[in-house]
Amino acid sequence: MTAILLAAGIGKRMGLGLPPKCLLAVGEKSLLQRTLEGLRSSGVREVVLVVGFRKEEIIQEAQRHAGRMRLHVLQNDRYQEGAILSLWAARDFLNRKVLIMDSDVLCPPSALELLLGSAHPNCLLVDGSALDTGEEQLVFGRAERVLHITKRPSEQIRGEMTLYGESLGFLKLSEPGAVYLRQLLEEKVKAGLVAIEHEQVYPQLFEQVPVGYERVDGLPWTEIDNPEDLRRAREEIFPLWNPPQCLNRLMAQAFLPWILPLPLTPNQWTCISLGVGLASIWCVAAGSYPMGLLGAVLFQAFYWVDSWDGDVARLKSMTSRWGGWFDVFVDMVVQVGLAFALAEGLLKIGAPVWVTVLGWLAAVGLALDFLITLWAKARGFGPAVFSDPSRGRVVLSDSKVARWWRANLTNENFSFLVVAVLLLDFRLPFLISIAVGSQVFWIRFLWSQRRRLVAVVKS
Question: Tens digit of pLDDT for each residue in 354-375?
Fold first, then answer.
């Protein structure tokens, strides 16, 4: 995937004396730096940056923060005309999968991950909770397909189509979609229509190219067009980017000052977590109460070590999709193994034989939970493999208490429940709850995603 980042404009509504909008600082980082970091963490490896106004400053900032991504810089000398010319400057890259982005948007990385992971090969991000003040690029369509985008929709459009919400300014296109967009841009430029926005070309694109959408209702994001937008971004939107961490993650991060200097890669930490998890399973399977307590300690340690691989990867810029899949595979092995270990341990202290059936039900249910959600992620929906858009998600209407509960009512705190079960010796009720609950989870998940599953199968 190649990201085309449009950063040539003057930003007249911001007033005189300010740098280009993409260089405005929000939370001690420029919008451009935040965008590049979000793209990098989402797996994008190539960025095309279109510059114009005060280009030297923008290029320097991009070079500082592009990291390992391939950076191509293109110039739009006619940046005082329509934004269509900025996209036209990148026409040689409209022959592959692309992500077309405005550079004046403050948007959490989770939204980019949602767009890039969407099952729709051509897709827009849409906020259905946004207000219609006349300044928003509003997205309309029918039957879940995008058909129009405009700031000033006619009454006919409002009457014939469904309003999906405001576009965030990010469009993902497949290779055929990008090629067709280039043809449309060429037609407009040759006809002398160079004073228009690039979004004004999109309705023609939508007529021929099926485009879907992903909703990010309530996520903390904003487009920055004027000083009031900048104030709101700094004082109201960005503070919501750092939701409360769950207790387990906070405890794991307390060890990072000692962990980071060690010469271990993220995948090596994942291997260590696997060893700790397997040791916990062996202790639980022994059956005795003292061994169960040791197993509880090791299972808690497994959760901490399992957190370190991701922390090390992010802080040392060593993230990889393979590492994300490997991490989830280890989680599946350990948690499925725990179900078997609980049943085996109960049998060793005289539990009836039917406990074996419970163990199998729990193990199979947990395996299905992992495999189905991993398949869903691979097809572009469901829980993310890493950097989960739904984990720690904050919406603008959340209270502080709601944010805390949202952060802690997560499977990342599952180890505390296991420790309590082993400490209080509630193994049998716990095993029953896993055997039933794991089946409920995957059935409920498939039911909730039934429409998307049908769409995926048909495609």
Answer: 999 999 999 999 999 888 877 7
